[in-house]
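Researcher: I've got a protein sequence and the SMILES for thiamine diphosphate. Could you write out the 3D structure of the bound complex as C-alpha cells? I'd like something to compare against our soaking experiments later this week.
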Amino acid sequence: MLQFVSLLVRTLFPQRSTHMDTATKQSLDFNTTTFPNQRTDAQALKAAANEIRRDIIRSLVRAGSGHSGGPLGSADVFAALYFGGVMRYRPEDMHWSGRDRFVLSAGHMAPVMYAALANAGCFPKEELGTLRKFNTRLQGHPGRDMHLPGVETSSGSLGQGISIAVGMAMADKLVDHSDRRVFTLTGDGELQEGSVWEAAMSASHFKLDNFCWIIDNNDCQIDGRLPEVMNVYPIVDKCVAFGFDTVVVDGHDPDDIMRGFDVFLTNQANGTGKPTAIVAKTYMGHGVSFMNDKFEWHGKPPSHDQAVAALEELAKM
Ligand SMILES: Cc1ncc(C[n+]2csc(CCOP(=O)(O)OP(=O)(O)O)c2C)c(N)n1
Ligand SMILES: [Mg+2]
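Model: Sure. Here is the predicted complex with thiamine diphosphate in place.
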C-alpha cells in the first residue's frame, strides 16, 4: 500500500516539480548576505541594489499587501546611500551620536529602507519576513515607536518627513555645530504637499548645507502620471528657485547617483551654505519588467507566481 502511494505521488508530482519547488523556495527565502558601507565601484552597488530588490519582493509577497513600485524604483539610490560610503553609520550601533540621519519622507516606500537596513546588518534579514504582520517592528509605514534600528522618525503622512529632516539638520548645524548630515527622500507626487515647500524654504533660509534632499522622480503616483493628477513640474526650476544646489541624476546608474551625492558632500565640506537637491530620474518598479513604469504597481504586492517570476528576472540582472 505504501509503495502504491509513493508511486502515485511520484507519478502525480514528477521530480522536475520537486526541483522547481526547492529552487523556488530558496529564491523566496532570505539569505544572510550583508554589504559593507564604503566607496566602491558601480558593480558592487548594483549587486547591493539587486539584493535589496529581491528582499523587497520576498517581504511583500509574505505580507500580502504593501508598496512594490516606489521601493523597487529607488533601490539603486538606497544602495549608493547605504553602501557607497556616503552616509556615516554603524550598523551595530544605530544610536551612535555621530551618525548621519536618513528620513524616509515617502513613508509608504518603507520596504526599500527596511531592506537596505537589513542588508547593512542593522537587524537580521529574516525579520524582513515580518513586514506588516501584527506587532512587527516593520510596520507598513515606519514607526519610531517600533525601535527598529535605523528608523529615525515615523513617517507616512506625505510632506511631514522632510520637515522633520530639516529640523534635524537645523539642530545639527545651528545648535550642536556638528558636521552630521541629514538625508531625506521624498516622492515626486509628494511634492504636491505644501509643507514640502515650507521645509525647502527653511532649509535654504537657514543655509543648511548639511541637508540633502533626494526626490524620487518616477513620474508616477498613487493613481496616475504626475502631470495628469496634479502637475508639479518643472521640479528642477522649483528646487533652484527655493535655493537648492540642484543636480539631476539617472537614478538607476550608480556612478551618476554617486556624482549627485558628491555634489552634496562638496557643498557641505566647502561650507557653501546651500542645501542640495538630487532629482533622481527613476522608473517605478524598475528591475521587474511587468511592473516597470506602471503606476498600477504603486501600492500592491506581487502574487506568489508574480514574486517567483520577479525573483527569476532579478537573478539574471
Ligand atoms: C498627506 C498624505 N496624503 C495622501 C497620502 C496617500 N498617499 C500615499 S502614497 C501617495 C502617492 C505619492 O506619490 P509619490 O510620492 O510619487 O510616490 P510613488 O507613487 O512614486 O511611490 C499618496 C497620495 C498620504 N500618505 N499622505
Ligand atoms: Mg512618484
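Model: The chain has a mean pLDDT of 95. The chain is about 45% helix and 10% strand.
Researcher: Great, I'll pass this along to the crystallography team.
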